Amino acid sequence: MRAALDLCNDKAESAAAGVYMVPHYEQASLGRAFGPLALPDVLLFCRGLDAALSQQAEGHCLVPTTPHGDPQYRANAAVLLGAYLVVRHEWTPRQVEAALVWEASARFTCSWSTGPTEHWVLTAGDCWEGMAMAKTLSFLTAEMVKDDVEMKAARASYTIQACRYDCSWIVPGVLMVGADPVTVIHDPNPVTCSSLIPDGDSTTACSVQSECDPDCDQASTDTVCKDYDRRASVCSFSSPGSLENLDYASFL
């Protein structure tokens, strides 16, 4: 038996795996939100589970467990297990729901919610639908689950993009969502960015260390669309070090 979320740590390079986090935000600001876990953790879990299953002796089985009386842990584990079945074994969301009937209706809340559980909207079943769509569009592939190199490359690509913008990618490289930019740039807080697009003179250093990559700490706080002033990350396929390389088309 293995604690389900511990499978995220089997292929992880840091102790932060398997924990609900939001780029650019401190844990204290997450409010009531507890999941679902981000794409890097989905990939780590799926790869860890696939590797663990491949190492099981014939006639033995692996049983992922969740703590008794912890529905939040169980909901996060359910999303990850469903993701594995969808991405690695090509199950449909309907097949996953049939196998995990109770877990399919497990609900997630947002950080600012004050409503009761029955008013929460996002379900584990919704997350499985998203995984299926990501697989159909090749944002997630079985190769990312079966191979360490493919998994690490996919995680690195997502992480550098998530750290690069003050937004969250809904479709990696294509669609992102963020706070109202007009509200953001008029925030009187001097640390908050003051314009949407860099003007070429952005020099203000980021005052909050990122949890993603040391290079991401070089981000400017002058703009919603962050720019970097040195060294491209090794996981980046193109240098993010100049204004010309910023992906304005996707951002806007």
UniProtKB/TrEMBL annotation:
Chain ranges of the Dual specificity/tyrosine protein phosphatase N-terminal domain = 32-133
Q: Which InterPro entries match?
A: DSPn, Prot-tyrosine_phosphatase-like
Origin superkingdom: Eukaryota
* Name of one Pfam family that matches: DSPn
Protein name per the record: Dual specificity/tyrosine protein phosphatase N-terminal domain-containing protein
Instruction: Give the source species.
Output: Alexandrium monilatum
Lineage, broadest ranks? Eukaryota, Sar, Alveolata, Dinophyceae, Gonyaulacales
